[in-house]
């Protein structure tokens, strides 16, 4: 039986873990949980060891999820194990970069993958917002936001600037400067987007999400209505190109179709959940991820 270490917290978004366990049982794979805060890297003359609970370990395969808060220890540990021939899906530097919307857009731009017009900033100004002045509706997002958290829509850039000034009066500027932000035009009035999941260079699941009434965020966790889409939809190939541009083995891609019919990328996430899209499409996303791990290892999984 092949062992795969999963670096995560099982209780965080547990439905994804349950799907991985189900897929593993069907393939004769044993999954073992490692909690990120229990990692150590032991450095001394002549030897560096990756440790778990103080014991040097050298796993064959590692999947990592729910590790965003532990970048300082996770990246060095995973890189160390990778140098010792551990199979690690989603190179850690690339995975963390995908959580930064600005770095993601830069990678997509270099690869000529269509993106939404975006302005990134720490603090907005009338001059900086000028390119978006003519748009009806803009959307503000924290650059590291997930699952729709912190997103706000405004009728215009002027409304955004006024709201920002009001917020500055309520808290010191340094508290805002801990994050950078992106602002984009509200394509189609907001409330509808596409979610794809890509594994090993193939789109394995694709849905459209329609936000709940009165909501601009189309996240399933916020009550959006999903519809399964065919994998020959143009969004599938765009999602594959986005994952390749971001140098990821698997992950989720949020996209939107503009008024001209061009599919553009909104976000890429190495640690995107797949329980929702699996339930809507019936696709075994977890199984595809495990199959990729086994293929990289040189094993087989039914």
Structure write-up:
- This protein has helices at 14-27, 71-83, 92-98, 101-110, 157-170, 173-176, 234-245, 275-281, 285-297, and strands at 2-7, 29-34, 39-44, 47-52, 55-56, 61-64, 87-88, 119-121, 138-142, 152-154, 181-185, 192-199, 202-210, 225-228, 250-257, 263-269.
- By secondary structure, the chain is α+β, with helices and mostly antiparallel strands.
- It has 3 domains: 2-88, Rossmann fold (3-Layer(aba) Sandwich), CATH 3.40.50.20; 97-114 and 190-290, ATP-grasp fold, B domain (D-amino Acid Aminotransferase, Chain A, domain 1), CATH 3.30.470.20; 119-187, Dna Ligase, domain 1 (2-Layer Sandwich), CATH 3.30.1490.
- A 5-stranded antiparallel β-sheet has the order 14-13-12-15-16. A 4-stranded parallel β-sheet has the order 2-1-6-7, with helices on both faces.
- A hairpin with a 2-residue loop joins strand 3 and strand 4.
- The longest helix has 14 residues, at 14-27.
- It is globular, with a radius of gyration of 20 Å.
- The two termini are 13 Å apart.
- The mean pLDDT is 92.
Termini Cα gap: 13 Å
Q: What is the strand content?
A: 25-35%
Shape: globular
**Pairing-aware structural class of the strands and helices?**
alpha+beta
- Helix proportion range: 25-40%
CATH superfamily of the largest domain, please?
A: ATP-grasp fold, B domain
> If helices are DSSP runs of H or I spanning 4 or more residues, what is the number of helices?
9
CATH architecture of the largest domain: 2-Layer Sandwich
Mean pLDDT: 92
CATH class of the largest domain: Alpha Beta
Order of helices and strands: EHEEEEEHEHHEEEHHEEEEHEEHH
**Largest β sheet strand count, sense and barrel closure:** 5 strands, antiparallel
CATH topology of the largest domain: D-amino Acid Aminotransferase, Chain A, domain 1
Number of domains: 3
Query: How big is the Rg?
Result: 20 Å
